[in-house]
Amino acid sequence: MKLFRAISFQTSLVARLSVLLAAVAVLPATPACAADGPKRGGTLTAIVQPEPVTLTPAFNTATPTQIVAGNIFDGLVYYDPALKPQPSLATEWKVAEDGLTISFNLRKGVKWHDGKPFSSADVKWSLENVWKTIHPRNKAIFENVATVDTPDDNTIILHLSKPSLPILSVLNAVGAPILPKHLYEGTDILNNAYNNKPVGTGAFVFKEWKKGEYILLERNPDYWEPAKPYLDKVIFRIIPDAAARAAAIEKGEVQYATFNPVSFREVERLAKLPSLKVDTRGYDWLSPVLYLDFNVENQYLKDVRVRQAIAFALDKEALGKVVWYGYGKPAVSPVPTALTAFHDASVPKYPFDLKKAEALLDEAGFRRGPDGVRFTLHHDFLPYGDDYKRTGEYLKQALKRVGIEINIRAQDTAAFIKRVYADRDFDISSSYNGAFPDPQIGVVREYWSGWLGSKTPWTNGSGYRNAEVDGLIQAAAVEGNPKKRTEDFNRFQQIVQRDLPTLPLLELRFFTLHSSALKDVVLQADQSYGSLKNAWFDQAPAQN
Amino acid sequence: MIPVSVRFFGRRALQLVIVVLGIAITNFFLLRLAPGDAAQVLAGEAGSATPEYLAALRKQFGLDQPLPVQFALYLRNLLSLNLGFSFRQGLPVLELIAQRLPATLLLMGTSITFALLVGSAMGVAAARRAGRATDTVISSIALLFYATPVFWTGIMLIVVFSVWLDWLPVGGMTSIERGYTGLAYLKDVAAHLVIPATTLGLFFLAVYTRLMRAAMIDVQQQDFVRTAVAKGLRPGRIAYRHVVRNALLPVLTMLGVQVGAVLGGAVLVETVFSWPGLGRLAFEALFQRDLNLLLGILLCSSVVVVLANAAIDFLYTVLDPRIELS
Amino acid sequence: MALVDIVAHIPPARIAQDNAFFRTARQPSAVVGVLLLGFVVAMALLANQIFPGDPLDFVGQPFQRPGEDPSFPLGTDMLGRDLASGIFHGARISLLIGAVATAMSLVIGVGVGAFAGYYGGKIDASLMRLTEFFQTIPPFLFALTIVAILQPSIATIVGAIGVTAWPSLARLVRAEFLKLRHGDMVQAEIALGASDMRIIFRHLLPNTLAPIIVSASVMVATAILTESSLAFLGLGDPNVVSWGGMVGAGREVLRSDWYIATLPGVAIVVAVLALNLLGDGLNDAVDPKQERR
Q1: Interior CA angle at A532 toward A526 and A533, to 5°?
Q2: Cβ density class B170-185: b for 16+ within 10 Å, e for less
Q3: Residue C130, exposed/middle/buried by CB under 10 A (0-12, 13-18, 19+)?
Q4: What pTM does this model have?
Q5: Which residues of C, range 196-235, sit inside 8 Å of B by Cβ?
Q6: Helix %, strand %, coil % for chain B, to 5?
Q7: Distance set, CA A271 to CA A248, A277, B159, C255 (Å)
Q8: Strand A43-47 to strand A233-237: parallel, antiparallel, or no bridges (unpaired)?
Q9: Does residue B15 register a pLDDT over 80?
Q10: Domain tally, chain C
Q11: How far apart, in whole angstroms, are the C-alpha atoms of residue A394 and residue A406?
């Protein structure tokens, strides 16, 4: 091999997140556990909602699947609070100077839950048959991996035809899931029976899935990390109603729940209880952004002034404060601030300004009619619960003030996806997406014209087509120089925030609720999808 | 007698087949009017997808076949009593239904029994003091429960009995972490059943209160009772003896009608209480466009309704020989 | 499930006897029903006068408790919308849903029941199969499916409730028609050569009106409840304010701000109660066999 250099991926994040790190470091030093450290034992009851479709993250990147699977599978790495990769199944990795070779040293002595040894063959097989093909998010990222060498059981070397820097941002258990080759090779992966009774290398072993009720995991006694995990069992209960979830958490029947398990108003109330803790960390790997897609083929919205006017007419502060109860901060760019290496704060901005909005609409030639209405648009909100419905209601009332009538359409997920992405029969839709640590993973798919006509959910919904933007996206994908890549992404942000086919509204802050007796719950930037192997009960959970 | 009942059951069986086929055909095409398909839902939930991924899912689900082919396949499966495969759940529909049906039947049975017993008791109490304040209060309470949205009652009962008083679990069907077996398991399930069954039962209470009250009053007005009263017997005693027969037929009729309604109400109650039953499964299948599963559940609930009503018609003849099987 | 189904499902021969339980309703309760319903209707009619402006507007601080601010006597919801205004305007939508859905059910149910009962034979048999077919699908599940397929809006919600609520009415009307069909009056009309339509609309229907009106009042109540359940499951129309929609939106803050879901819930209870009491009262008033106790 040639010259290798150690990874210094997104080091700039370290500074910002060092505060968090410090907080985490303090945790084990609290008086309660100073003397004896983590304690073994106990059953943790958690919530997964909605019920997962499958427990294997290979071809399904839905949140519920990942929440459970993160405990059963290990990734090559996990992400620390600074979003830096840390050793898991891979102990060391190196990227060649030209970015065309990436090599990993794998941990020795790791066993699958069925006792078979884990080796580089599993990783190679997974890369070739899962990451490059059926994984919904990774295809573009691993596309340029030309060949994979496995000189021995514990070494794997990726040879790329062009650089692909985001690879190192997706190597955790759910981003690049490693499946046991001996159970999957030669089978139809989508229909493999082990998808619903997964065999991983993770800290917890799959035991039982009672559909509609719970998923039971048990401690892996042969886990490669000594003494871990601390918990004997983890039960993921399926509780469909938010009020019932709140009651179960309040009562102590459930001690851990991620991804906004209860309404914002409820969390305000529950946060005051000494038995519970609210944590908004552990979602940085996802970095969710709420946005509006404007259908740029609409007779009004095709005028950039109308789109900008709408941006001026929305009070994002109020939206974050009232509709999202403070769990959202106004977004400036589609690349959220958590991605410090890529976020460009100098993009065109749209502060709340009704006069400007009205002036732009007048200028565009859409004057108020005798009834005060300029024109009417439909709004399709993301059918993921009341928060998005309220966002739509806010939009309706806010735009009424500048003379735009909004007719809100409610529908279920299937209808929403068909309407927006397949039929394109919409005017303004709301949605959120995960930006992930690299804009190439989550952000650019909203803007790249290559997705148009493919009818694929959560891609370019607005119908935006800009050759310069396409060029920047394609250049950044294969750019090996981080500095040059950042420049590409900055230029990209400047253009799309000027053209505004998509209006980023809020950087959402998701929250986790857990029992205060449960310690060391959130230690990773991808904790919400990560393993509970570090968590332990300081005292037996108060259960009734 | 025997030939009549044979003809009765033969006709009912034929009716069942016709209804089931009719429902299968209607629902098959009705459900396919729903916008979007299961592959889009899955891709949507995943938060990311590629066209290749969508195509692979459609192929896996058989959605790439033309509609007539899908329908022919479905009919062929149905004729061999195979309800198809739920690709989303990765299990045969029949197996999924078999897993969930007991929970729903338990919930339905308990809540109807509750409604019947408590409702009847309230009806009798009201009739005995007909026209007085007690009657008004009882009738009003029954009606009030009927008028209150089921989900609201459910959430309120959780707040009071689970969170505040801490007597009963919040939801679900078992305390999984305890790993109960045997008698302890049954007790555990019973504890989980109390609030959901009461919630559903309270809604249906009013009907039985009214039926029983009416039957009681009716009996009190009948000639033989008046005669008996004239003879100096206490009306209450006579009424009790006759009221059961008098009330049983309308109650039975009501039960038949309510089977369908209780199944519908189960959607709400199972959602509020995370009860792992068929109603919730149907609701989820609807939103996930898991049409094979939804179709299977709709068929299954129709069969339950038809069977329940056939059983009730048969019971009529047993209870009242004047009624003939038709 | 409507109480009226009891009547609909009792074999025709026993109708008179089982009507007895309706006899039990006393006049005072009917009066209360009329008063309550009058109040609800007045709320609907006067909504624009008392609370001009869009009830969906964010007019105040969110989460103001009832009485906290005199300008919002019933408080505000999570977005600062006036709850009192919502409840008044909601009365319109909820009553509209109830009335239109019931009207739909009446047209279908009375039509099917009348033709089946009047013509009998094959027509009766096939219409009754149709009725049975609709009856075997749990009505709420059916309504849910229809709304989900057509996507929620006032029109689809009304349509779904209307299409699923008629079978019991059809059976009721058929039973009444069967009774009257062979009566002397109808036989005389037939002998005189009157057309079927004339007999159905001039003679039979007017004589069946009483139980139909009783059923209708209860069906309106059931429709209001069904709409609220649909809204609870997320299948409401977000463009208008309905009681069901308000309860649905408020349920997630039920623990901290009980009044947001409870006040519109009380409105539902009052309306449903009123309609049921009214149904009882009407039944008393039109039932010639009524005996006062």
Answers
A1: 115
A2: bbbbbbbbeeeeeeee
A3: middle
A4: 0.84
A5: 221, 225, 228-229, 232-233
A6: 80, 0, 20
A7: 14, 6, 18, 14
A8: parallel
A9: no
A10: 1
A11: 10
Please give the Cα distance from B201 to B182 (Å, whole number).
27
> Is C135 contained in some domain?
yes
Mean confidence (pLDDT) of chain A: 88
Min distance B297 CA to chain A CA atoms (Å): 15
Of A53, A253, A434, the CB nearest to B170: A253
Rounded Cα distance, B247 and B67, in Å = 50
- Determine, for residues C228 and B282 on separate chains, whether the beta-carbon distance falls below 8 Å: no
pLDDT digit string, tens, across residues B226-283: 677 677 666 556 656 666 666 777 777 778 777 878 888 888 889 888 888 888 898 8
Q: Is C97 exposed, middle or buried (0-12, 13-18, 19+ CB in 10 A)?
A: buried
Q: Are C78 and C253 in contact (CB under 8 A)?
A: yes
Query: Which domain CATH number covers C184?
Result: 1.10.3720.10
Domain region containing C156: 27-46+74-286
CA–CA separation, C33 and C272 (whole Å): 9
* Contact between B147 and C140 using a beta-carbon 8 Å cutoff: no
If you count them, how many residues does chain C have? 293
| Count of CA atoms in the C-beta half-sphere (13 A) of A297 | 11
User: Is the separation of the CB atoms in B162 and A252 below 8 Å?
Assistant: no
- State the pLDDT at residue A20: 37
pLDDT digits (tens, 9 = 90+) for B151-203: 888 888 888 888 788 888 887 888 877 777 788 888 888 889 999 999 999 98
- Chain B residues touching residue C250 (CB < 8 angstroms): none
Q: Which of A314-318, A487-491, C33-37, C202-206 has the lowest mean pLDDT?
A: C202-206
A23 pLDDT tier (thresholds 50, 70, 90): very low
DSSP secondary structure string, C16-79? HHHTHHHHTS-HHHHHHHHHHHHHHHHHHHHHHHHS-S-TTS--S-SSPPTTTSTTSTT-B-TT
Q: Among all residues of chain B, which has the CA nearest to that of C167?
A: B257
**Peptide bond preceding A229 in cis form (omega within 30 of 0):** yes
Residue C18: name the closest of C6, C29, C30 by CA.
C6
- The label of the residue with tokens 């129709």 reads B302
**Cα-to-chain-centroid distance, residue A342:** 17
Of A61, A195, A244, the CB nearest to B274: A244
Q: Which two tokens stand for residue A395?
A: 């939009």
A3 secondary structure, DSSP code? -
Q: Is B119 on the interface with C (CB under 8 A)?
A: no
Half-sphere exposure (CA, 13 Å, Cβ side) for C13? 4
Alpha carbons A38 and B265: distance in angstroms, whole number: 47
Q: Identify the pLDDT of residue B292.
A: 86
Taking an 8 Å cut-off on Cβ atoms, the answer to whether B260 and C6 are in contact is no
Q: How many CB pairs lie under 8 A apart between chains A and B?
A: 172
Q: How far is A48 from chain B (nearest CA, A)?
A: 12
User: CA-CA distance, A307 to B38, in Å (whole number)?
Assistant: 33
Contact A322 C79 (CB under 8 A): yes
Q: Answer whether residue C53 is part of any domain.
A: no
Judge contact between B282 and B270, C-beta under 8 A: no
Q: Is residue C292 part of a domain?
A: no
In chain A, residues with a C-beta closer than 8 Å to the C-beta of C257 are 265
C93, part of any domain? yes
Q: How far apart are CA A370 and CA A117, in angstroms?
A: 76
For residues C252 and C260, what is the distance between their CA atoms, to the nearest angstrom? 10
